[in-house]
UniProtKB/TrEMBL annotation:
GO cellular component: cytoplasm
UniProt family annotation: Belongs to the protein-tyrosine phosphatase family.
Keywords: Disulfide bond, Hydrolase, Lipoprotein, Methylation, Prenylation, Protein phosphatase
Keyword Lipoprotein listed: yes
Alphabetical list of CDD domains matching this protein: PTP-IVa
GO MF terms held by the record: protein tyrosine phosphatase activity
Residues in Tyrosine specific protein phosphatases domain copies: 106-177
UniProt-listed SMART domains: PTPc_motif
Domain Tyrosine-protein phosphatase: 31-188
Name used for this protein in its record: protein-tyrosine-phosphatase
Disulfide bond among keywords: yes
EC category name: hydrolase
Enzyme Commission number, as recorded: 3.1.3.48
Length: 228
């Protein structure tokens, strides 16, 4: 995986422990988490807009070069205004609190691959894929973690990387899925990656795939404060 990976929060307040990204505060300060996936692509994890807040989101989308928005919950707002402003809308809904079905993963990874390839050829400023569920804490982070895993990052490292800047992301089932059940389609070996300042520090040892190990149990205790 590229050593360009990092996570930074966008316009975050001191109340939730996130660092400020940019100089100007925004009404969407607590809604956005910007993840720099590579030199050519970023992910913007966020909560769900409404028809009344779309104008605010569009201003920030313009600043961040958002080309696509992925909705993994049922639509709650009209997509016409987004399309009129050059933002493509992709509907990939699945059940709240659940894990993504193979059909959703296939389309999602295809989009990530397409955007990365276009940017590498055109060598422009990074594009951003915005992705949201209702609160941006479960389904959206899972798909971002899947993309990181596909690029060779260990599952636990991917979870920690996302969760450090998206506090509360993932539930027990989603973490179990990412750590023990998700199979990397690319076939590349899991490895840790160098990260920029501000990103989570990868674990020093990658746990084996398969049944839950003691390392996994310790990870669950760290995430949820109980025994799993």
């Amino acid at each position: 995986m590229s050593d360009m990976v990092s996570v930074s929060s966008y316009h975050a307040s001191a109340m939730n422990g996130r660092k400020t990204f940019g100089k100007v505060a925004s009404p969407l300060s607590n809604s956005f988490s910007l993840l720099e996936y590579s030199s050519s692509l970023r992910f913007l994890i966020m909560d769900c807009p409404t028809n009344s807040t779309i104008p605010l989101y569009l201003k920030e989308f313009s600043r961040l070069n958002v080309t696509d928005i992925v909705r993994v919950c049922e639509p709650t707002y009209s997509k016409e205004r987004l399309i009129d402003n050059g933002v493509m809308v992709h509907d990939l809904p699945f059940k709240d609190g659940d894990v993504p079905p193979p059909s959703v993963i296939k389309v999602w990874l295809g989009l990530v691959s397409d955007r990365t390839r276009v940017q590498q050829k055109e060598a422009e400023s990074p594009q951003t894929i915005a992705i949201h569920c209702v609160a941006g804490l479960g389904r959206a982070p899972v798909l971002v973690a899947v993309a990181l895993i596909e690029q060779g990052m260990d599952a636990i490292d991917a979870i920690e990387l996302v969760r450090r800047k998206r506090r509360g992301a993932f539930n027990n089932r989603q973490i179990t899925y990412l750590v023990d059940q998700y199979k990397r389609s690319s076939g590349s070996r899991a490895r840790t990656s160098g990260v920029r300042s501000g990103a989570a520090t990868p674990s020093s040892q990658s746990p084996p795939q398969g049944p839950v190990t003691q390392t996994h149990k310790s990870f669950f205790r760290k995430m949820f404060g109980g025994s799993h």
